[in-house]
Design a protein that fits this description.
There is one protein chain. The chain is mostly helical. The chain contains 12 helices and no strands. It has helices at 3-24, 27-45, 48-56, 62-95, 97-102, 110-136, 146-173, 177-183, 186-192, 208-212, 216-228, 235-258. Helix 2 (27-45) runs parallel beside helix 6 and helix 4 packs antiparallel against helix 8 (177-183).
Length: 263
């Protein structure tokens, strides 16, 4: 078999392995999925009327804030899901299965590719579930064209791929699952200080650069523009640059750590 055929075959095997693990031990994925869902329900039903008045004016209903909130929480869902990837990779490294794989005639990169593809699939499923909850509480995107929906889906997949490679690197450098979970916490923390919940211009002046110059804010604004018809501006190119940059950085970091002697 050619090298490419071996890589595809072994990566498919590792993907099945990771999906079986996720199916047999769903508690981690479900716990991470609950975070964006609980935030969605909290902000809609507790703060929704007040936040809608601040964003859409005094006469705006709760639906104005639901429309603003859901795109940010969809991207936050991706950040939450990839924490499970960091934990899974760290478990593989610390439990010795990676050392066993190194002695077998399999493509070296297939182990990481299996983790990445499996995590991206889980992220997409999680986004669909959170999106369904968003629709249930009133989110609507009636003006988006089929091309805009396709672009939105592509952005979500690209963003999930970028964050997953970063999470894989975090898992490889973590000594245990607890450390991996802690190291990956910025993937949940960054959306909280982005434009996910309030516009950047509504934040204190000293805090606005922190919210603006990070990967989540341009991605959120781009997703809002695609789904709701708001102005995207330069955020589309910034989101694409962040995704490609993080994916390349995470890939090179992960490969370099994986090629080192196992701990």
């Amino acid at each position: 078999m050619s090298t490419l055929s071996l890589a595809v075959r072994d990566s498919s095997t590792m993907l099945r392995r990771n999906l079986l693990h996720a199916r047999r031990y769903p508690s981690l994925t479900l716990n991470l999925l609950l975070t964006p869902i609980m935030l969605l329900l909290l902000f809609v039903y507790v703060f929704g009327d007040t936040m809608s008045a601040g964003i859409g004016g005094a006469g705006a209903g709760r639906s104005a804030y639901v429309a603003y909130l859901v795109p940010g929480l969809l991207l936050m869902t991706i950040g939450s899901t990839t924490i499970g990837t960091a934990v899974s990779v760290s478990n593989d490294m610390s439990e010795g299965i990676i050392a066993r794989f190194r002695t077998m005639a399999i493509h070296r990169g297939s182990v990481l590719v299996g983790h990445v593809v499996g995590s991206v699939l889980q992220s997409v499923i999680s986004v669909v579930l959170v999106g369904a909850v968003g629709v249930a509480v009133g989110f609507r995107s009636t003006d988006a064209t089929a091309l805009e929906w396709l672009a939105a889906f592509g952005l979500l997949v690209l963003f999930a791929t970028a964050l997953t490679w970063i999470a894989v690197g975090m898992g490889l450098v973590s000594p245990n699952a607890e450390a991996a979970s802690n190291n990956a916490m910025p993937l949940i923390f960054l959306p909280l200080i982005s434009s996910a919940f309030v516009p950047v211009h509504a934040m204190p002046g000293w805090f606005q650069p922190i919210a603006e110059y990070q990967p989540f804010t341009p991605a959120i604004e781009t997703l809002r523009g695609l789904l709701l018809g708001t102005e995207i501006g330069h955020n589309g190119w910034l989101a694409l640059a962040w995704c490609v940059g993080l994916a390349v950085l995470g890939y090179r970091w992960s490969i370099s750590k994986f090629d080192q002697d196992p701990r």
